[in-house]
Specification:
single chain, alpha/beta, Rossmann fold, six-stranded parallel β-sheet
Length: 229
């Protein structure tokens, strides 16, 4: 029986690698012994993609890249490495060449767009008192509070960074849509998913934080992708 690939998890805006905590435990229980979670600076798509590439290159063997939210743009930009066997998008941006997360969001604004505010240093934050209803309305109040207080703000300019050569045009793809997403419009997720001709699209009755609110279902899709590549 073939060994499982290394799963490299890539977080999005307003969070870090720890957002994958529940999914990591689900995957561990399914026999995944090689798991990595990138901690990206969220300072530019180029810098985040390079950080992700460096982690992938450290792996001796096949890698399944999984991106949540803006992490989808990162795996789109960084995923064309020889040992990457597939891409899994979890309520994520999947830009084409010349597209940016910000441009995609402007076409079909998400419900919580008004709850994102800039600071004086050029970073964007979700208002703490609006975090749960915006990012993870299906999380417990305590879990959402911890995420709100520890949120990792991106540089606003990162929203406008464009993908150059999308890896999804060359690699097998799986996509999870969150039907109650308030950070990326669900119809934007569906549109991005369909145009990639993925092996599978899964729709979950979930918030943007599906990786934390429905880790079993998210791990199911990752597991299916890993077993198919």
């Amino acid at each position: 029986m073939a060994s499982k690939p290394t799963v490299v998890l890539v977080h999005g805006f307003w969070g870090g690698a720890a957002h994958w905590g529940k999914a990591i435990l689900e995957l561990k229980d399914r026999g995944y012994t090689s798991l990595r979670a990138v901690e990206n600076p969220l300072t530019s798509l180029a810098e985040d993609a390079e950080r992700t590439r460096k982690m992938v290159k450290q792996v001796d063997g096949p890698v399944l890249l999984v991106g949540h939210s803006y992490g989808g743009a990162v795996i789109t930009e960084a995923g064309d490495l020889p040992n990457v066997t597939g891409l899994v998008y979890i309520a994520a941006f999947a830009p084409d060449a010349g597209e940016s997360p910000g441009g995609i969001s402007q076409e079909l604004p998400p419900a919580a767009v008004e709850n994102i505010v800039p600071d004086s240093d050029g970073y964007l934050w979700i208002k703490q008192d609006k975090f749960r209803e915006s990012f993870g309305q299906d999380l417990s109040a305590d879990e959402a509070l911890v995420m709100a207080v520890t949120q990792k703000a991106p540089l606003a300019s990162t929203f406008g960074d464009e993908v150059t050569d999308p890896a999804w045009r060359k690699k097998p793809v799986w996509y999870q849509v969150s039907t109650n997403d308030r950070m990326i419009h669900p119809d934007n997720e569906r549109r991005m998913a369909r145009r990639m001709s993925p092996r599978k699209i899964v729709e979950l009755d979930a918030s943007h934080a599906s990786l934390a609110s429905q880790p079993k279902a998210v791990a199911d899709l990752i597991d299916e992708a890993a077993n198919s590549t």
